[in-house]
Design brief:
Chain A contains ten helices and 16 strands. The first copy, chain A, is α/β, with parallel strands linked by helices.
Chain lengths: 332, 332
């Protein structure tokens, strides 16, 4: 199925049931997943018509029964996961359990004026974080989860392959933890932005990455490699860069099997961990980083469009691969 | 290069230098690596003529200066690793450092009557462990290292893909730690032996492994998968079996890149760690398991040949893929 015409959700507030909260959405970011949905790549999962969007900042306007710790007017962000029925193979990891529902993909999402959500998906936005930046807390929580899965420590050498929004946020979070970060990105404008934000960047089409990280790290090589590119080249490079017991974090979604050098896993006792979405503590970390101005979130916003221009926003993303994060302004 | 004619090492005791110990070898096991060397597959690394062999039990016959804690007559086994000059990318992991020398591959080994080795490679064999079983401590230490890398816990469900000597030992060590182990092996004789030793086994050509582990684990699926087969099928299966946050241990040496389903790493936050040789504590664990009769080492010995029949032993291994561990009796 080709590109979709997007119909913004109706501006109707559904009264919250017990345990739910009614929100007036301020901003909703457009995620790479939303673009995949727009292109029809997720038709097997997304039931049309669907209100999509899951990177949201909002204000509480109504509160259902049995909700505590939240009051009308609170500025909030949403952790858009609803745990389904647990199965033994989930081992209690509800954030990626078999029956997980992802709000904005499997259920209605945030690209609308009003949204009613379970109270347990809400995190309070610190007073000093603007609502615009609040819409970036969700992708920032992804990056926090990835960095936590990598167990990044101070002074470690970190290579991030792929400098889109998530790769850039991973780089900034790892740097905020005291790591030495080298970002690998082929797009010049994305490299320029990353450099402006204080990151070291290389173009893998111009340098040999093994030599680059060897020089960058004074021979230590990569303690951690994040594969965020989703490309065959990224997978090829990711095993060449780690040092002994180095860690690779599989952030990208590779929907096709990829050829991997398994020998390097054996030889250097390399480790690879997958990382998907986030747990509550990742949202708390993201909110804390934002509250302490550790991450220049505003600098990642490429453009903000009114909810009536959503269709144009998706078209703009397709025609501007340099862009970083696009926000939809859902209400005034 | 084709198969080699094997010349047993000369029965000459080289006087130990400072920090060295002279050994009279009792038994030396034949490792899969030795068979690779015999087939000429490691000609790039092994300088001919070379005395190979690294699975050794022995008695101390001479002791150089500056050696403590070892006396003439001690029954010992050898951890055949000599750390080379450290480089930053080794991060202090001397057992797999860039300049590591593996005794019996990179330097003369144990298929001889007398062998002079650095004292720091020696572990004392407990009194109640026969010298024959002592020759299996090295592969048992490999298995202990693999199980330790996997962080196997009591009651966990463990799948071992490949039931050769190392796969069988991994299964037995994991079981000794209280895990529920399912061994996957295509060879009927190897399955029979494993079953005789109390292991649960399946033939992957007769059952669907996902269904088999689902049933075996009551839906928990594999907490840990050891890939020991070195096969493309093994790599294909290894990502299908883990549960959420399940761990894969890459034990086999895959000299060719393999196609892997990276999506399952992302989706279930699966982890994969490489495991190579051992550290001193793995030898201590192996010796402790042997001393407490936790592993039926004698049952793994397929045949014992005199050192004069080494050539025939290698030929026998090639013609009997069912066999498990072959020992060379180096002295009376």
């Amino acid at each position: 199925m080709g590109d979709k015409t997007f119909y913004p959700g109706e501006s109707v507030l559904i009264s919250p049931q017990t345990g739910e909260v009614g929100l007036k959405i301020a901003y909703c970011g457009i995620c790479g997943t939303d673009v995949h949905i727009y292109h029809g790549n997720m038709d097997h999962r997304v039931k049309i018509p669907q209100i999509i969007g899951h990177e949201v900042s909002a204000q509480v306007v109504t509160i259902g029964d049995d909700v505590s710790g939240i009051k009308i007017g609170d500025r909030v962000v949403i952790r858009p996961l609803q745990a389904g029925a647990a199965i033994p193979a989930d081992k209690g990891y509800t954030h990626i359990g078999r029956n997980l529902k992802f709000m904005g993909i499997d259920t209605p999402g945030g690209m609308q004026a009003y949204w009613t959500v379970p109270a347990n998906t809400i995190h309070l936005l610190p007073d000093n974080v603007p609502l615009r930046e609040g819409a970036l807390i969700e992708p920032l929580a992804v990056a926090c989860h990835d960095v936590r899965r990598a167990r990044v420590k101070e002074h470690e050498y970190v290579v991030v392959i792929g400098g889109g929004p998530i790769g850039l946020l991973i780089s900034l979070v790892a740097k905020s933890q005291g790591a030495n970060v080298l970002l690998v990105e082929i797009n010049e404008k994305r490299r320029d932005l990353a450099e402006k934000l204080g990151l070291s960047v290389v173009n893998p089409r111009q340098v040999d990455l093994v030599k680059a990280i060897d020089k960058f790290s004074d021979g230590v090589m990569a303690d951690v490699v994040f594969e965020v590119s989703g490309s065959t080249n990224g997978v090829k490079e990711m095993t060449r860069l780690p040092n002994v017991r180095g860690r690779i974090v599989m952030v990208a979604i590779h929907s096709q099997p990829r050829e991997i050098d398994l020998f390097s896993f054996f030889w250097k006792e390399v480790e690879m961990v997958g990382a998907r979405v986030y747990e509550p503590q990742d949202f708390e970390m993201a909110l804390s980083l934002a509250a302490h101005n550790m991450i220049p979130l505003e600098a990642l916003i490429s453009d903000t469009v009114d909810i009536g221009q959503v269709q144009q926003a998706f078209e703009q993303i397709d025609s501007h691969p340099d862009g970083m994060k696009y926000l939809i302004k859902c209400t005034d």
